[in-house]
Amino acid sequence: MSIIPSAKSTGALYWPVQARRNIGVRSLFLVVLAFLVAYGVLFPGLFTASGFAKFTQSWFPLALVAMAQAILMLTGGISLAIGATVSLGAVIAATTMAGPLGVAGGTAAVALAGLGIGAATGFIVVKLRLPAIVVTLAGSFIIGGAALLILPRPGGSIPAWLSDLLAGDTPAAFVLLVVIVLLWKLYLATPLGLSLYAAGENPVGAYRSGVPVDAARVAAYAISGLLSTGAGLFVAAQTGSGDPVIGTAFTLNSIAAAVLGGIGFLGGQGTMRGALAGSLLLSLMISVMFFLGFTPVAQYVAQGLIIIGAVAIPQFRKVQP
Amino acid sequence: MTTRAPLLAARGVSKAFFGNPVLRDVSIALQPGRVHALLGENGAGKSTLINLLSGALRPDSGTIEVDGRAVARMTPALARQAGVAVVQQELSLTASLSIAENIGLGAYPKRFGLVDYRELAARAKAACKLVGLDEPLSTPVGNLALGRRQMVEIAKALYRRPRVLILDEPTSSLSATETKILTDLLERLRGEGVAILYISHRLNEVMALCQHVTVLKDGTCTADRSLEGTDAAGLVRLMVGRDPGDLFPKWQPSLSPAAAISVAKFSAGLMRDVDLDIRTGEVLGIGGLVGQGQEDLLLGLYGAIPARTASATVNGVSGLPGGVPKANALGLAYVPADRKREGLHLIHPIITNMMLPAFARMPALKLRSRKAEGEKGKSLAAQLAIKGDLQRPAQALSGGNQQKVALAKWMPHDPLVLLLNDPTRGVDVETKREIYLMLRAFAAAGKAVVLLSSDTPELVHLCDRVAVVREGRIVRMLERTVLSEEAIVSAAIGAERRKVAA
Q: Given an 8 Å threshold on Cβ–Cβ distance, is A198 in contact with B139?
């Protein structure tokens, strides 16, 4: 009767579902591939161990904040506090790791700060039903202020061995990214993780179906905070010290990467693989334009035009039936 | 009659929204192995009753019973535990998730804390098979047509193995084949002892499928009986009929043969190929069930949504206006149903709301004259009996007075055609009467009034003619001599063919 043999369709549902999610981002993957080839031609060093390590290190923090932003956008929210949270992560890492807490304690402090800030933000947004954009704008002042209180001017330090491990000639950043992506896949395979989509796109319907909508959204904010402070730790390791305003540019870049990756503003639209590809594309664009000798100003203009174009093209497609 | 306790029941429940009673002392009992029909006109309280039964709302008084025991505080979670599944009219699906992920949403099978996709696939597959869905389970719901999505919604309810299944107009977006599958399925579930509550406006479906009927009218129960020995006409009589009292003014027809608007093969939104003449001096009613395209008819004529037509004449000018400013220039005015969002700017002063259409007509950079505006506002307020300070924000007014402001703002422009979208919804009786008088006065002054209304008595007692819309077409044009609530409701739900045949 059925077109699909029943043994096959009941045996493996997970992979066909995953494959379906690629459909929307195929063209994006092609664009990213084209940029990768261009980058490889302009900078053949990419294919050496240290070139690859450097390349993934320059992409890694942007990938993390793109994920942090994408999770929130999937629930129908947004965060303007990502940059400030990255800065806070960086200063906490730089002030704790050289002290009595050590690297392990410092890492735990960074993680707890991220989870705590995220959960508190999420609680305010979800339980008090306040607009995410206002809460996180206010949050960016508070979190950014806290970073400046902890470390008024650049300073602190990260143990040299950690800097060498994360930002030296090892592919540690790439390995970490793979681990994070796998953890994300695992989260998305839990009922709470999968509920993200339903909670973002159709919260009323999801609530009626018995989905813990509020819990799914608060959890998303907590994870987002954790990814942001984690990106801060990595940036501190890259520079070897803490800078209380180093994360500022990440707020808007995280939104740009997510939007490039096809994440919609209305919630429930887009995929994490898209957001990651978007962050890679943004990172590549910046590098390629740098190698082509664009002035920084021209880079910004080009970057803006490409983002507008990326958002507009699907709209044009929609207009034509 | 069965003596078993009903699986789910409401006993003497009442519910009011903002002091407006929606349900009064209604009881309903869902017995296992019975398909129970719930009938009623738009706004009779059907959806509210479902929401009470499924725990989405709590009754002001009365109790909800599960298996004969009163539940102190019904919640959606409790309802799910009791095996109550609701197929809502608006879908609860997520477009970006697959069919299987939607079906299991909120009740995923778990293994080691993860969604057990193997188990989910098996159970979703079984639910899909029941409703005849043979698309691959991994298909995103966003890729499905509306009718298929409705089937996913039903499969989602079945996945939970319900003891009580509530379906709110499940067939409105289904094809004939899909409807047949659904009715066969309901027959089977009934045989397995499931209690089913079936809400539909399609009377022949109800007659064929259901054994018992509860009819609601204006929030009260007018019938709770077996369907055996009942005919469609009898059911229609139970749904309508209200003592009009002296709510409606006495009026003389002021119809003239001149057409204000005349369109042929007009299509807009849901409306398809409609021929319509709107004459000067008449109140033309637009009736039918909610959401059959009536609003699109008004918006299309007004140029607020794209419309196509073979030929059109609007106040002597050929062609549709095609845009709101053009429509205003041709003497059309539109008063929306949702006055809070579309009709008024609630936080702004009443006077500003009244002047808004005038602003559009003023030269863009001319200074405003507050004095002239104030005087005009006062005279409008006097004319329409809007009481109080005009500098207050519009949200300070009652619903009825807000509606009068929404009407008043068009008066200075002396519109030739008034398009009114349900102007008396949520309006108190006194203001209703004032609005009725006003509408007849407009008609007497030679204007054309188009009155879209969900209130059937209002159509019967106020209109020269009533066009009844069903599924995007005008299915009946009822002249005043044959106007009755029965006639309108019969045409709206398509019961008249049976009546003629019987």
A: no
